[in-house]
# Entry
Amino acid sequence: MLATLQIQDISLAFGDRDILDGVSFTLDHTSRSALVGANGSGKSTLMKILAHQMSADTFTATTSRDLRVSYLPQGDIVFGGATLYHETERAWDRFLPLIAEQHRLEDDLQSEASEAKILRLGEIHEQLVEERYHDRRQITEGVLFGLGFVRDDLDRICNTFSGGWQMRIALAKILIEQPQIMLLDEPTNYLDIEARFWLKNYLKVYEGGLMLVSHDQRFLDETVGEVYELFEGKLTRYSGNYSAYLSQRQAQIAALEAEARSQALLFEKNEQFIERFRYKASKSRQVQSRIKMLDKIEQVKIPAHLRELSFSFAPAPPSGRDVVVIEHLDKRYGALSVYEDFSLWVNRGERLAITGRNGVGKSTLLRLIAGEDSDYSGTIRLGSKVSIGYFSQETGSTLNEGNSVLDEASEAASTSDQARVRSLLGSFLFEGDDVFKGVGVLSGGEKSRLALLKILLKPVNLLILDEPTNHLDINAKQMLLKALSAWNGTIIFVSHDADFIESLASKILYLNEGEKPLLYEGGYSDFVARLEEKEALSPTLLRASVAAPAERTRSYKEAKERKNRIAILRREEESRLALHQRLGQKTEAVEAEMALPENYSDGERIVALITEKERLDAEMSEVEQEWLQLVDEREALEAEARDA
# Structure
């Protein structure tokens, strides 16, 4: 039986707004689903309801027996005083009742033999072997190392890790738990590019079900086979990966936009009529009729996450050909050497992507180039007339919290940009009344988006960007990518988004701890091939931790069914043998009667006895053939059991 989660009629309203309106769908252990929609559309809310971490106004769910569902939220997970290894090993706690039962059976069998208990003990042993419980350390470490932890981290106390690493711990536990269905809300948010590649490879071979929210389009394209779009409280399914979904939606959006334009023209004409004749008595009936007509028209709405966003830079002021020159750089933090005798040249117009695992010095290099850190030896020199726009993950803290969002952006905009500040804020996901919010009440992500917009509004010729897409949805990310691609300045950026790097970078600087930095001169495919090789799953881990939970459950059930079938076959064999013996006895009795003189001299009687003997012989032959077939099937199943 499939591991299935069937959802019917989830509804949830906040005030007069329907967040979820009659949402129904089904996930099983083969599902590969993306959940998409605009920010605030209810994606995380839906996942929380599915994970029973939030209630709904109505919610009906039908699940298969013993279904295990695991949920990864976007954030706000903090683990306590256990070590990293012991915390993640708790993902195996589902086996503790089985281990306790095993110990009880072992104790009981020391004092009293019981065939039923011996059989049950064998079943437990087979299940633990099948699900690799005894290999749990190897599996746990394999997942942790794949997500970027190192061996020295295993004995670190969990609460000493930063928030991003706390989320990696939570993700590791879910992968180790191996549920039939995983609900992952932005699992790539805190992952560097190596961990993203590793997770992508894991999910591609993992056979459990998956529902995924992510703003990484490449990641979605390579891991999902269907897309659920949440818009205005309704859920719509599209087959194919994210790119296929976009392709299907383009024609629909074009039709909606055409309808919206026609509708806007209709509203404009009727509103002009209403305004013109509002106070003219002879036209009052027509005015009221048109007012009622407009009130009844349901306005066409374009999904916010699919609206065409636009943003453009002012041309970059001219600069010298050599924009950044680094020679023999040495940078240390105490005993830790981050850069040693490192040299790099960045020329005008180049787009240099810097990537690598977290903690290898990517952000440090950006701070050094931007002049935010002067504690180094060697040379870092900017070229002639180079002006810098620098965005870091801390830039949001430099905003004036007394300003509104609109005021903060307006202060950074040039005179020519003032008229379009509202639309630019919309491109960075500040819409409607959001622009009047105080900066002080914004979330960390909202502050980062506003800080990024402010930097992009300034006329510079060198942009230094540290994870600029972290808090952007896919549509806003594409808007930023188009603007940066069309800009004529120089860009040095850190990113873990493969699609963003491939589309923008002309060179890639790859940093790996303990190794010399590698500069890929435009060879993204070579860079990806190296990463794929580096982050490939080991065959041992593949067998141990990626084998599908549903497949393992199926294998265990098959083993149990095989054992039951063997027992049935043995009973049927015995039944056939007993029947064969009874038929043999009847045949002997008929043969004895045939030997009697009074019978073989009676023509009619002897014909009847011969007919009965032939019938018994045929039935015995049939029973014997059935018995041989049963023996063959049993022996084949026993051979399978020995080989399993």
Remarks:
- The CA atoms of residues 246 and 306 lie 8 Å apart.
- The chain has a mean pLDDT of 84.
- The chain has 21 helices and 18 strands.
